[in-house]
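=== RUN LOG ===
request id: a7f3
mode: sequence -> structure
chains: 1
length: 168
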Amino acid sequence: MHNLEVNSDISEIDLFEIFIEQVDSLLDGKNPVLTNLSNLTALIKQTFSKISWVGFYLRKGENLYLATFQGKVACEIIKIGSGVCGISAERKEAVLVENVHTFSGHIACESATNSELVIPIIVNQVVIGVLDLDSYQLAAFTEFDKKYFTRIIEILKKKVSLETFEIG
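=== RESULT ===
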């Protein structure tokens, strides 16, 4: 597995295509879900230098609970409908925020965060969690990122049995 970074001399499209190949080879349905999420989180963090924090929040009832992550200490519980993660889960759609300081209802787990991208994980029409990506840069994430990280979640759903996974 190659160690890629956005700072390298390859294009963003090539980076994502290689990254997708890595994700596809890294995820293994024979491993526990948390093992797969942990390795995916680490791979995302080490590949994309613009990402200051990356993690998964998993749903139980009307809350999202912090699961695997890379970065500083984070909020542990987010109510569905609150903050960027909760709104993504409520709407069942990706939410891209160029400036979190202008986002009504943003939950500031870390005050240095400036932009965020959240991708919901939907199994059988139910949101079971979200992938949360933060950056210290304003407008760090684009529609391009949203498209490719949504694709990463689709690979995760194909490779890992999430249908029966429950937290706590």
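=== NOTES ===
DSSP finds four helices and six strands in the chain.
Confidence is low (pLDDT under 50) at residues 1-7.
=== END ===
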